[in-house]
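Problem 12. The chain below contains 80 residues. Write out its predicted structure in token notation.
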Amino acid sequence: MSITTNDSKVDNDHLSSNELGLNNIEETTKITHFVYFMTFIIAIGGFMYGGVISGAMLLLENDIPMSSLQKGLVVGGALL
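Solution.
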């Protein structure tokens, strides 16, 4: 959709970088060491949840009888 105002054509479908607040591209693309660290920690947590914790639950089910609620609490609390 286009609007013509004051002899200039404004395209409402596309916003300029000024309208998006991206005047200084360097500030928006700066990645700090903290971002890399948090990404690493989140990835390790995902691997643990997918592999280590689920594998441990298979062994725990045989040794310790637990209800579904107890299993959920063990798996949910393992990441904390």
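Discussion. Residues 2-78 form one domain. Students who got a different answer should revisit the alignment rule from Section 12.3.
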